[in-house]
Amino acid sequence: MKGGFTEDAESDHLKARIAWYYFVAGMTQQEIADQLEITRLRVNKIIGLVRAEGAVVVDLRMPMIDCIRLEEELKARFGLEEAMVTPSLQDYEESQRTIGEAAGIMLDAHVSRHHGIGVGWGKTLSYTVRRITERRLKNSWVVGMMGAVTRGSGTNTFELSTALARSLDVECHYLTAPIYCPTSEIRNVLLAHDEIAAVMAKAEAAEVALVSCGDLTHRSPVMPLTIIKENLPELLDMGAVGEVMGCFLDPDGNIVPHPINQSIMALPLEKLKRKPVSILASGGRTKLPIIRAVLRGKYVNRLVTDEVVARALLYES
Predict the structure, then answer these.
(1) Residue 92: pLDDT over 70
(2) Closest CA to 111 of 128, 95, 87
(3) Tens digit of pLDDT for each residue in 142-192?
């Protein structure tokens, strides 16, 4: 035995990891060999065994011991209902894809049991929709929980909610306003509009929420916005580490007391907390501070992330 595992368990774990990298992440045999520091010949042999055993059908259905252990520790540490950890990948976009698709699997298990699905935005979530089983839901709906930016990118809340509603054959509701208003007074005026108020009520009533979060790098969808560029120095001075639903948080998960956080056209985070099912799908080392902040603030009760982030959440202060 090594580290508490039998040789058989270690062998199964290695097979699962190699199969995941090859069949799900699309890595080459040489890339897998380099990642795991084993020979390409061994990788080739294990892939052949996995095929022969029928372990890969359409989806890979083999447990990965390390990831399962991290999931259980994350649930215990942060009081989560569910956690899903994917193996980390060097390619950032591929990592987003695998996290997003894993979130789709988690979401798919809940949409038929709850009424209403609220959707955020982000590249990771654009992959989530691809893993939803097409069906026709009764007495449900999809609603964008945030305003939007003016440029289409495939990651906008309008586009994501439309794609999800199409998969579930339900009505879709849009929060037709910019994500940030010039002032909180203008936000309040917009919220008084009957149609916008009705959509916000739908967002509040939705029992399932799917969100991602943004760091303070160029990858974040809010960083190119003029209003963010103008206020970023002040946000940093106040300790902001990133945003979720457009709302900037400090390292402990507190909402930064900046006027921009009073001008967001989105479901307030305190109402996100009340959802029976709330899923945060996000990963990558640069997002560690904001993911930790969201968990410390207890704004969500489910997490989908990668191994590197999971380990850092658990073992780094």
Answers:
(1) yes
(2) 128
(3) 999 999 776 555 566 788 899 999 999 999 999 989 999 999 999 999 999
SS (H, E, C) 81-98: CEEEEECCCCCHHHHHHH
Write the burial class of residue 232 (CB in 10 Å: 0-12 exposed, 13-18 middle, 19+ buried).
Answer: middle
Nearest CA to 170 out of 194, 200, 137 is that of 137
Say if residues 268 and 28 touch (Cβ distance below 8 Å). no
Q: What ranges in the chain are assigned the alpha helix state H?
A: 7-19, 29-36, 40-53, 65-78, 92-108, 123-128, 157-168, 184-191, 194-205, 226-237, 269-272, 288-296, 307-315
If one counts every other C-beta atom within 10 angstroms of the C-beta of residue 127, the result is 21
- Any alpha helices (H) in 238-297, and if so which ranges? 269-272, 288-296
Structural tokens at position 305: 């992330």
Distance CA 159, CA 256 (A): 29
What whole-number distance in Å separates Cα of residue 7 and Cα of residue 9? 5
Which residue, among 94, 96, 70, has the nearest Cα to 82 in the 3D structure? 70
Residue 72 β-bridge partners = none
What integer is the mean pLDDT of 222-251? 95
CA atoms within a 13 Å half-sphere pointing along the CA-CB vector of 8:
0
